[in-house]
Design brief:
The structure holds two protein chains of two kinds. By secondary structure, chain A is α+β, with helices and mostly antiparallel strands. Chain A has eleven helices and four strands, in the order βααβαααβαααβααα. By secondary structure, chain B is of the alpha+beta class. Chain B has seven helices and four strands. The chains are: A alpha+beta, B alpha+beta.
């Protein structure tokens, strides 16, 4: 039930200074950041990340996405929470910013359509990437992070949102102070 | 000019990391590196001061490890900005005191290829091209091991 999922703040989001705002939104719902880093990936790595895109969406989309993801540093996050994959998709909004509802990250910070992006031949600048399924999340986390980079820690949200037992929190607190 | 900000676990637990990053982004500073590392921030703060004084780099910290987020900011006024940020978030963050300590602490925790240089130092995202092959080949394990020596 408690899942982990991968979120990337793409170069357009990082360069527009949206990193803090996006992290805030995930924190607000009580998701826990268990891993975080800034990295600048190369083409080989990007190809691994978008390995299924070529078959699913065609070569043109693939090339555009490759260009976008390698154009600057990205911020990679691993978030943990109940049904995290689905919740994160909900907070991000639909892939196409044009139809993403207000209140979602893409609805609030992007507006372009697929049609426009196709016309100018660039990837849809939709600020974030989020794992689509549990399976994808597992693979993507393994690709972007090594186990040593993922950490668990107690937070007050554990009691009030996840209903962890008080003893657990007590035990974890001992590890911090 | 660069400055190191260490976000302590209390900030992660209280969920104010986003707010801290947002403050940085609002000002004339950009984030050139972020990573999460495990160490004991309380002893590390003491140790860093001692090291600065004694320049004794042999004995490193190996106490209780807790996750901290390390952020390097760059901007023409990064040191002053860091001090103001410290006033606002006080117990949630550690910030380097001056340019010299900032340099020392950044070298201590980061490798060159983890930092995305901003050539113009003007708070805009014009980053120097770096060899990205190196970033991927480097493993955090190595750093951790080095750290625990």
């Amino acid at each position: 039930m408690i899942e982990r999922t991968l979120v990337l703040i793409k170069p357009d989001g990082v360069q527009r200074g949206l990193t803090g705002e996006i992290i805030k939104r995930f924190e607000n719902v009580g998701l826990k950041i268990v891993g975080m880093k800034m990295t600048w990936i190369n083409e080989i790595f990007a190809e691994k990340h978008y390995s299924d895109i070529k078959a699913r969406r065609g070569e043109k989309v693939f090339n555009a996405l490759m260009e976008l993801i390698t154009m600057g540093p990205v911020v990679a996050l691993v978030l943990e929470g109940v049904d995290a994959v689905e919740i994160v998709r909900k907070i991000c909004g639909t892939t196409e910013p044009r139809v993403a509802p207000p209140g979602t990250i893409r609805g609030d910070y992007a507006h372009v359509s697929f049609h426009y992006s196709d016309e100018v031949n660039q990837a849809v600048r939709n600020v974030v990437h989020a794992s689509g399924t549990k399976e994808e999340a597992k693979n993507e986390i393994a690709l972007w992070f090594i186990p040593e980079e993922l950490h668990n820690y107690p937070s007050v949200h554990d009691i009030h949102i996840l209903h962890h037992k008080a003893e657990y929190i007590k035990a974890m607190r001992g590890k911090i102070n | 000019m660069k400055n190191l900000i260490i976000v302590k676990p209390s900030a992660l637990a209280k969920k104010v990391l986003g707010l801290i990053i947002q403050r940085i982004e609002e000002k004339n500073a950009i984030i050139v590196s972020i990573k999460t590392s495990l160490f004991d921030i309380h002893s590390i703060e003491k140790k860093l001061i001692e090291e600065q004084e004694e320049k004794n780099k042999k004995e490193l910290i190996n106490a209780k490890k807790i996750p901290c987020v390390l952020i390097i900011i760059q901007g023409s006024d990064a040191i002053n900005f860091g001090q103001n940020l410290k006033k606002e978030f006080n117990d949630y963050i550690h910030v380097s005191l001056n340019e010299e300590t900032a340099k020392y602490e950044i070298n201590r925790f980061f490798e060159k290829n983890e930092i995305f240089e901003n050539e113009k130092n003007d708070g805009n995202y014009f980053l120097k091209k770096i060899d990205r092959k190196e970033i991927l080949s480097k493993s955090i394990k190595e750093i951790t091991r080095e750290f625990n020596k």
